[in-house]
Design brief:
Elements (H helix, E strand, L loop, with lengths): L13 H25 L4 H18 L5 H19 L10 H18 L2 H4 L19 H31 L25 E3 L10 E7 L5 E6 L1 E2 L3 E3 L5 E3 L19 E9 L6 E2 L5 E5 L4 E4 L4 E3 L9 E8 L4 H6 L7 H7 L7 H14 L4 H15 L1 E2 L12 H9 L1 E2 L1 H14 L4 E7 L11 E4 L3 E9 L3 E5 L17 H7 L1 H31 L4 H15 L10 H16 L18 H13 L6 H16 L14
Parallel strand pairs: 13-14
Antiparallel strand pairs: 1-5, 2-7, 2-16, 3-15, 4-5, 6-10, 7-12, 8-11, 9-12, 10-11, 15-17, 17-18
Helix pairs in contact: 1-2, 1-3, 1-4, 3-4, 3-6, 4-6, 4-14, 9-10, 9-12, 10-12, 11-12, 15-16, 15-17, 15-18, 16-17, 17-18
C-alpha cells in the first residue's frame, strides 16, 4: 500500500527538512524542559519528550502538511512556555530557555515559509492555472504572517504570561519532596533558634527562591532578640497553629500588621529543602499546601517536614508607609513595657562599645529615636568595611567589640548586630532579622530571583505608633579592598552569555527579516498602479495571461488586446450561448476598444472621457468573469 505524502513534503531539500526538524526539536525541547521542571520532574524528561514528539510529528505524519505541523508545534510550545516559563531563572525554566525557545520558534516559522519554494509540485498541479492566492505578493504575505504570529507569541510570553501567572499563582502548588538537608550556602532555609556569629556564611550563586511581587522588599525568615556576645538566640521558641488554617495572628506590638499598605507575594522554593516561609513583614495570611505554624514574633514555619523544590505559597502582608517625618513625629510617645523589657534591655557588650554609642549620638546632636539610629549608621558607613572574607573573631572575645575596634571588616550579620547592640545601649528597642534581599529581577518575566548569596541580616527598630522598622546598615558600608562580592561588567557578561548570544541571534533574524520585508513592500508599492490607465492595463495583462497570450515587450495596449481577442475567439470555437453576428463572443467584442482607450490615456493629446473609461471597465469585468480555456490545456468537448 502506497503511503500518501503531502505535496509540500515531496521533493523537499534535505537541508531544509533537517533544519526544520532541528528548530522544532529545540522549540519543543525548551517547552518540555520548563514544563517538567515546574512540575517537579528533571529537565531532561521534558527535553526527551519534546524530541520524541518532534520525531513522531515530522516523520510519522507524512500526509499532513509540513508547514501545518511546524506551526502547530510552535503554537503548542509557546503556550507551554507562556504558562510555565515565568516561574524560575534557571537554564531549565528561566530567561535563557525562553530566549532559546523564541529563537527556535522564529527560525522554524521562517524555514516553514520556504517549503513551497523547495518542494516539487504534485503531478496534478502541473499545467493547472495558478491558484487565486499565488503570485508575486504571496511571499510577502507569508512573511508578514510569520512576523504577526511571532509577535503575538512573544507578546503572550513577555506581557500577558507574567500577569496571568501572577494571578493564577495565588494558590499553593506542590513541588518535589524535600531533600534531607538544605544545600550548602542555604542555612537560612532551615529554621534555627540560634545564630552563631563566629561562623562565616558560605554563600553561592545557587537559586533558592523565586518571587512574584510588585516591590523588592526584604524577605524575613527569622528574628532574634537575645545576644550573649557571640551568638543570637530567641527568648521564646513556642509555636502556634494559624487561625482558621491560613490567618496569621501577629503579636500586639507588631503594629505594622494593621498598616494600610498591602503586599502580595507568590514565592516558589527552588532549593531542595526549606522549612521556613519567607515573607515581607508583617504577614497576615499565607496560602500553603502544607500546614503552617507561627512563632510569637510572627515568623512562619512548616509544622511537619519541609518544603521541596517547586513548592509554591502565597503570602499577604501589611505594612505602614514610612517617611522620615513620620518616624520623627512619634518621638515622645510611650513605649510599652513589654517592648522595653525584651528589646531594650541592657545589652551584653563591653564598656567601650557603650561609650562609642554615646559619643556617636552626642557628636551628631541626635535626640529622636530615628536620628540616633541614623547617626549610628552614618558612623558605621564612614569607619567600617564589608567583606564576606573578613576574619572571624578570636575565641573568648566579644564579636561586636572585636569588629568595631580591631578588624573593622565584617559581613552583614556582624554589621547589623553592631547596630542592634549600640541601639540597645541607647535604650532603643531593637532586634536582629535574617532573610533575603530581592535585588535581581528577570527582565523578561518580571520574577525576582533570590540566590544563596542574597542571604542578609538587618536591624529592626521599634517605633511607637509604627511598630518594627527595618534598618540596613550594610547598605552604606563600603566594600573592603580586594573584595569580590560585587560583580564586574565582565562577570555579568559571562553570567548572561547565553542570553547575550541568543538575544543577538534573535535581533539578527528580526533585522534581516525586517529588511527583506521592507524591500518587498517597497517593490510592491512601486508596482502598484496609480492611474486608471495603469490599473486597466494591468487587468488586460491578467486576462491575456489567463488566456495563454503573454504580452510582448513594448507592445501597445491596442495591439495586445487584438492578439488576446483573437486567441479568445479561437479558444471558444464555434458560436455559443452568447455571440455577435460575426460569431465572436459578445463579452470580448470590445477588447480592442479597451486597448484603444488605454493607449488614448497614455499617448493622445486629449485623453478619453469618463464615459469611455466606464465602458472599458464593463468590458474588462465581463472578460474577467468569463471562463476561458487556454490553448492545448482546454478540455475536450464530449461527443
Amino acid at each position: 500500500m502506497n503511503r500518501i505524502v503531502h505535496p509540500d513534503r515531496q521533493g523537499l531539500a534535505s537541508w531544509l527538512f533537517g533544519s526544520l526538524v532541528l528548530a522544532v526539536a529545540v522549540a519543543l525541547g525548551a517547552a518540555g524542559s520548563v514544563t517538567s521542571t515546574t512540575n517537579g520532574q528533571p529537565a531532561s524528561v521534558g527535553v526527551l519528550a519534546g524530541v520524541v514528539v518532534t520525531v513522531l510529528a515530522m516523520w510519522g505524519l507524512p500526509s499532513v502538511s509540513l508547514r501545518l505541523v511546524v506551526r502547530m508545534a510552535v503554537v503548542t510550545s509557546g503556550v507551554a512556555v507562556a504558562r510555565f516559563g515565568t516561574v524560575g531563572p534557571e537554564i531549565t525554566n528561566g530567561t535563557q530557555t525562553i530566549l532559546l525557545w523564541m529563537l527556535a520558534a522564529v527560525a522554524a516559522l521562517v524555514l516553514a515559509a520556504r517549503v513551497d519554494h523547495h518542494a516539487v509540485p504534485a503531478a496534478e498541479t502541473i499545467g493547472a492555472p495558478p491558484a487565486a492566492d499565488a503570485g508575486p505578493g504571496r511571499p510577502g504575505r507569508t512573511a508578514a504572517h510569520i512576523v504577526v504570529v511571532a509577535a503575538v507569541v512573544v507578546a503572550v510570553v513577555t506581557v500577558l504570561a507574567p500577569y496571568a501567572v501572577s494571578r493564577a499563582g495565588r494558590t499553593a502548588a506542590a513541588g518535589r519532596g524535600p531533600a534531607s538537608a538544605p544545600e550548602a550556602g542555604s542555612s537560612l532555609l532551615r529554621s534555627s533558634d540560634s545564630l552563631d556569629m563566629t561562623t562565616r556564611p558560605d554563600l553561592t550563586d545557587d537559586v533558592v527562591l523565586t518571587v512574584r511581587a510588585d516591590q523588592d522588599l526584604f524577605l524575613r525568615g527569622d528574628v532574634f532578640d537575645r545576644w550573649d556576645g557571640r551568638r543570637w538566640t530567641k527568648s521564646s521558641t513556642d509555636r502556634y497553629a494559624l487561625y482558621e488554617g491560613n490567618r496569621v495572628v501577629p503579636p500586639p506590638i507588631d503594629i505594622g500588621a494593621v498598616g494600610s499598605e498591602v503586599v502580595e507575594q507568590t514565592i516558589t522554593v527552588e532549593a531542595g529543602y526549606s522549612d521556613v516561609y519567607f515573607a515581607t513583614p508583617s504577614a497576615v495570611r499565607i496560602d500553603s499546601r502544607l500546614p503552617v505554624v507561627q512563632t510569637i514574633d510572627g515568623s512562619l514555619l512548616t509544622r511537619r517536614g519541609a518544603m521541596g523544590r517547586g513548592e509554591t505559597y502565597h503570602v499577604t502582608s501589611r505594612r505602614v508607609p514610612l517617611t522620615e517625618s513620620l518616624l520623627r513625629s512619634v518621638e515622645g510617645s510611650p513605649i510599652p513595657q513589654v517592648v522595653t523589657s525584651v528589646y531594650a534591655e541592657e545589652p551584653v557588650t563591653t564598656d567601650r562599645v557603650r561609650a562609642l554609642a554615646d559619643r556617636i549620638v552626642a557628636e551628631a546632636g541626635a535626640d529622636s529615636i530615628y536620628d540616633r539610629v541614623r547617626a549610628l549608621e552614618n558612623w558605621m558607613d564612614r569607619n567600617l568595611e564589608y567583606s564576606i572574607d573578613a576574619p572571624t573573631s578570636p575565641k573568648g572575645t566579644d564579636v561586636v567589640d572585636d569588629f568595631l575596634f580591631r578588624s573593622k571588616i565584617g559581613w552583614c550579620e556582624q554589621i547589623a548586630s553592631s547596630l542592634v547592640v549600640m541601639a540597645r545601649a541607647q535604650g532603643i528597642p531593637a532586634r536582629l532579622a535574617t532573610g533575603y534581599v530581592m535585588d535581581e529581577r528577570d527582565a523578561l518575566t518580571g520574577t525576582y530571583v533570590v540566590r544563596a548569596r542574597n542571604a542578609h541580616a538587618w536591624a529592626e527598630i521599634w517605633f511607637p505608633e509604627v511598630g518594627w522598622v527595618p534598618f540596613d546598615p550594610t547598605a552604606g558600608v563600603p566594600l573592603a579592598a580586594g573584595s569580590h562580592d560585587e560583580d564586574t561588567f565582565a562577570d555579568r557578561i559571562l553570567q548572561h552569555l547565553v542570553e547575550v548570544v541568543v538575544g543577538v541571534g534573535v535581533l539578527v533574524l528580526v533585522l534581516v527579516g525586517g529588511r527583506r520585508l521592507l524591500r518587498r513592500w517597497m517593490r510592491r508599492r512601486a508596482d502598484r498602479p496609480r492611474t486608471w490607465a495603469a490599473a486597466a492595463d494591468r487587468r488586460l495583462n491578467e486576462i491575456g495571461a489567463k488566456a495563454g497570450t503573454p504580452r510582448h515587450p513594448g507592445e501597445t495596449a491596442t495591439a495586445y488586446a487584438r492578439r488576446v481577442q483573437s486567441g479568445l475567439r479561437s479558444a471558444n470555437g464555434p458560436p455559443g450561448r452568447s455571440e455577435a453576428a460575426d460569431g465572436r463572443p459578445a463579452e470580448v467584442l470590445d477588447l480592442v476598444a479597451v486597448g484603444a482607450v488605454i493607449d488614448g490615456h497614455l499617448y493622445a493629446p486629449v485623453p478619453p472621457g469618463p464615459e469611455r473609461d466606464a465602458m472599458a471597465d464593463q468590458v474588462l469585468d465581463a472578460a474577467s468573469r468569463t471562463e476561458h480555456a487556454s490553448g492545448p490545456s482546454a478540455p475536450l468537448e464530449s461527443g
